[in-house]
């Protein structure tokens, strides 16, 4: 189907979507926790900072840092090109391009236009933004559009330049405390390719919000700062964690509704804001650590790119096989929670789930 969306789906055939490709672009620059702490002291004279604090508090070791002059669209475009190349597709094969990032090139137009221009994509585009849950929400939207026959192939891209927040000043210890989690933010590009399929890939999802918790983590808009004063980033880790209380129950309910439990999951990808936070989420879900991929210590918090990064790492390590059941758990400031369940089909022409274990013998989606 062309990307104008005018051709309806074939009558009588079930229509599903599947994530057929995942790709990441990792900048070559590295910055250790100790180097970040040295930079904080140099930029903010008079600030007292305990050596090794980022490791002690968050389990942070290092992050990737993009070269000077890099834009979020640059990171997203490289990852997007890689996903298309892996699928053997050109830019004209994309029916819709979505940019879903907490970082953006400009306030207007949508950064998706810039990514599309760099890729040579002429399809419709738009941005999706919901803090660290942007990519998960973009998958939700793309799945719905593919299921209704509007598009056949959607390229979701993201480019995070979280390290830029490290340049914000900390004039006193209280400001440093409010900004401290931002120093663990890293840079990364990622892309997911969703395609129409006769076999279920995306099996189900649930999304919830506790919008009363929005004050727990804020980054001001540089164009509109009167309400908060100067441009700033403020994170209250305790308040943010508390705003997610009870949301894990929604995940259990969603799994139960389609006849699954966390014990059926081969790979669990969770948003990783720190090592203790990741451990707490896995424990609350009842998922063993060996069914997850730890990325935070080496990459830091890469916001919307966190879930695609874990998928790519799991694939690289041989942890995923066709038909494996994968759960993506997104948690974002606001607060919002999302859980998406999928069968892993790492190709453009997915096949029915392999009968590796008993739970793969039947489809989850009627």
From TrEMBL:
Identify the InterPro entries for this entry.
ACP_syn_III_C (IPR013747), ACP_syn_III_N (IPR013751), Thiolase-like (IPR016039)
Q: Keywords in UniProt for this one? A: Acyltransferase, Cytoplasm, Membrane, Transferase, Transmembrane, Transmembrane helix
Q: Which Pfam families match?
A: ACP_syn_III, ACP_syn_III_C
- Which spans does this entry mark as compositional bias, Polar residues? 17-31
* KW Membrane (keyword) present: yes
**Does the keyword Protein transport feature in the UniProt annotation?**
no
Occurrences of domain Beta-ketoacyl-[acyl-carrier-protein] synthase III N-terminal (ranges):
126-210
Q: Where are the transmembrane segments?
A: 325-344
Domain of life, source organism: Bacteria
**Region Disordered: start and end of each range?**
1-37
- Which positions fall inside the Beta-ketoacyl-[acyl-carrier-protein] synthase III C-terminal domain? 255-344
Q: Which PANTHER family match?
A: 3-OXOACYL-[ACYL-CARRIER-PROTEIN] SYNTHASE 3, ACYL-COA:ACYL-COA ALKYLTRANSFERASE
Q: What is the protein name stated in its UniProt record? A: 3-oxoacyl-ACP synthase III family protein
The record lists the organism as Streptomyces ehimensis
Task: Provide the taxonomic classification.
Answer: Bacteria, Bacillati, Actinomycetota, Actinomycetes, Kitasatosporales
């Amino acid at each position: 189907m062309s990307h104008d969306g005018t051709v309806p789906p074939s009558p009588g055939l079930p229509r599903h979507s599947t994530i057929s490709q995942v790709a990441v672009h990792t900048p070559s620059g590295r910055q250790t926790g100790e180097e970040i702490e040295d930079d904080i002291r140099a930029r903010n004279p008079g600030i007292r900072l305990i050596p090794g604090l980022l490791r002690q508090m968050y389990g942070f070791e290092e992050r990737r840092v993009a070269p000077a002059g890099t834009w979020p669209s640059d990171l997203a475009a490289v990852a997007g090109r890689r996903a298309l190349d892996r699928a053997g597709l050109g830019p004209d094969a994309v029916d819709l391009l979505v940019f879903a990032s907490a970082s953006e090139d400009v306030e207007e137009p949508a950064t998706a236009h810039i990514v599309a221009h760099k890729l040579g994509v002429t399809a419709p585009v738009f941005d999706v933004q919901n803090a660290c849950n942007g990519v998960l929400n973009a998958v939700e939207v793309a799945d719905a559009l593919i299921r209704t026959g509007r598009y056949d192939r959607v390229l979701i891209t993201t480019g995070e330049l979280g390290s830029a927040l490290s340049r914000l000043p900390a004039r006193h210890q209280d400001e440093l405390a409010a900004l401290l989690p931002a120093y663990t933010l890293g840079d990364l590009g990622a892309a997911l390719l969703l395609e129409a399929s006769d076999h279920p890939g995306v099996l189900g999802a649930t999304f919830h919000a506790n919008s009363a918790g929005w004050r727990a983590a804020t980054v001001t808009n540089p164009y509109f700062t009167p309400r908060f004063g100067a441009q700033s980033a403020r994170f209250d880790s305790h308040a943010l964690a508390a705003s997610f209380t009870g949301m894990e129950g929604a995940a259990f309910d969603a799994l139960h509704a389609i006849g699954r439990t966390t014990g059926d999951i081969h790979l669990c990808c969770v948003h990783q804001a720190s090592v203790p936070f990741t451990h707490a989420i896995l424990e609350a879900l009842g998922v063993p650590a060996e069914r997850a991929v730890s990325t935070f210590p080496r990459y830091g918090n890469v916001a919307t790119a966190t879930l695609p990064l874990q998928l790519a790492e799991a694939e690289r390590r041989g942890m995923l096989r066709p038909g494996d059941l994968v759960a993506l758990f997104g948690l974002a400031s606001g607060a919002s929670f999302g859980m998406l369940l999928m069968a892993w089909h790492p190709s453009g022409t997915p096949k029915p789930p392999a009968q590796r274990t008993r739970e793969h013998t039947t489809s989850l989606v009627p």
